[in-house]
TrEMBL record:
Pfam families noted in UniProt: PPS_PS
Binding site for ATP: 17, 39, 180-182, 186-187, 198-199
Pathway: Cofactor biosynthesis; coenzyme A biosynthesis
Residues passing through the membrane, by range: none
Protein's recorded name: 4-phosphopantoate--beta-alanine ligase
Biological role: Catalyzes the condensation of (R)-4-phosphopantoate and beta-alanine to 4'-phosphopantothenate in the CoA biosynthesis pathway.
Reactions performed catalytically: (R)-4-phosphopantoate + beta-alanine + ATP = (R)-4'-phosphopantothenate + AMP + diphosphate + H(+)
InterPro entries the record matches: PPS/PS, PPS/PS_sf
HAMAP family documented for this protein: PPS (MF_02224)
Keywords: ATP-binding, Coenzyme A biosynthesis, Ligase, Nucleotide-binding
One example GO MF annotation: ATP binding
Membership in a protein family: Belongs to the archaeal phosphopantothenate synthetase family.
Amino acid sequence: MTEIPKDHPRYESLALREEITRCVEAGITSRQGLIAHGRGEAIDYLIGEKTLPSALEAEEAAVAALLTSKNPVISVNGNTAALVPGGIVELAELVGAKIEVNLFHRTEERVARIKEYLESFGAKDVLGLNPDATIPGLSSERAKVSKEGIFSADTVLVPLEDGDRCEALIGMGKTVIAIDLNPFSRTSRMAHISIVDNVVRAIPNMIKSAKSFRYTRVIDLLYFVYAFDNRKNLEAAVEEIKRGLDEGRLEESSGYSKLSIW
Ligand code: ATP
Ligand code: MG
């Protein structure tokens, strides 16, 4: 492990890299997960590494959808487990959701490690180790699910999802909430509620929302869900990326060096 100096201008981003690398070594995250993380980092840079107002709106609608569902499930993969293990456990408890491990690069050992890791943060009854149902029309390992979890869920929260499974879950009639920094991905386009934000900001924001909704009436929560327009929301995220490019995000970073003639 490399010790990252606290005063490094990109401390947070580097610390996340360290953490996800540690989790690869611990058998929690796949090596391919590192590549997915890098793609996320690139887009995060373009949105200014902050929660956009449109993402906050999506996060609120997502929490309202989870709170008004009968059997909500949070699907966890290796990257999510590495980046927000405690957050997932807390959010699940606040919205009354089950947690199920579901992996693209699935091995029994990795599912067991992730389950154990989440349990060390207080999770109980983590599903996914003994899948007893299959998502129809999906050939990858992600089709393996548990009957009482993802298979019978009415709403599934899928951080860092794969477009194919997102489509298959929608085909099963479920409400799908995605957390994906890429507003252009198939996942973001397909999901009912797409949160274009880094999972490390999205989950804490959702925890805050869940707490603030504690005494909100169901009818008002439903209003949040139905008033949400995913297409408009994604367009707002794309606009923000374009604005960042036009204005030059570099203005906000450390400055420029000019070559001099010697
Ligand atoms: P799709 O199959 O939906 O078109 P994809 O193939 O582009 O997506 P995958 O490799 O399936 O992407 O999944 C990785 C996705 O997760 C990427 O879109 C990436 O932007 C996103 N991602 C990576 N790290 C994070 C993060 N920390 N928070 C949120 N999203 C992230
Ligand atoms: Mg994909």
